[in-house]
Amino acid sequence: MTAAPLRLPLQALQRAVAQVAQAPLQLASWSLGWTFALQLASWLPLPLLLQVAVQLIGLTVAVAGLLALSERSLDPWQFSWRGFLTPLKRAPLPLLLLPLLMGSLIALAGLAFVLPGLMLLLFWSFSLPLLVDQGGEAWEVMASSTVLIRRHWRRLLPSLLLLWGLTLLAALLSWWLLGLWLPLAAVLLQGLYRSAQG
């Protein structure tokens, strides 16, 4: 008996690996560079909440850059480092506010009980792809993400659980593993977002 619910997320992961394989060195170096910079930022003599905020914003900027690149073809001959910073130039304030808003609300919901925090994380999974794709304000993209995921809940749930589970595992194991996983995670998230849009 095959695990039918896992077939779709595993196929999406296989497509993400194939897409990232087109420009592996550039994506890995960008991603590892960002995660290393975030590790260095954790050594700054800042209050804990400020350190968490800096790391959330840095991680969001890195993933937004990877999402913007995955939207285009990852041809190594046309690769540009400026492409990573395109979302930050286009919508700087919402891109900086989104991780703080989502992170604090998910953390508060998770303090009440683990399930509400997990539900918010799943419902807001497409907030960053929506912001990179369509622009807007942080609250707007969070609401749009909730509507989009509720519409395709049964189809997206296994893929999103796999995506967030592997991301959490990579983050718990080491920073460099998270850096290597981020390009795959961004391409997988972008593919799920596009498939949900139909």
Description of the molecule:
The protein is mainly α. It has one domain (28-197). It is built from ten helices and no strands. Helix 2 (24-41) packs across helix 10 and helix 3 (48-71) crosses helix 5. The mean pLDDT is 80.
Number of domains: 1
Compressed to H and E, one letter per element, the order equals HHHHHHHHHH
Main β sheet profile: none
Task: Indicate the proportion of strand residues.
Answer: under 5%
N- and C-termini, Cα separation: 30 Å
**How many distinct beta strands?**
0
Q: Specify the overall morphology.
A: globular
Radius of gyration: 16 Å
Q: Structural class, please?
A: mainly alpha
Percent of residues in helices: over 70%
Report the mean per-residue pLDDT as an integer: 80
Poorly predicted regions = none
Instruction: Tally the helices.
Output: 10
Q: Layout of helices and strands, plus pairs?
A:
Elements: H1 4-20, H2 24-41, H3 48-71, H4 86-90, H5 92-112, H6 114-123, H7 127-134, H8 138-151, H9 153-173, H10 175-197
Helix pairs in contact: 1-9, 1-10, 2-3, 2-10, 3-5, 3-7, 3-10, 5-6, 7-8, 9-10
Descriptive labels:
10 helices, globular, 198 residues
Give me a quick take on this structure:
The protein has 198 residues and is mostly helical.
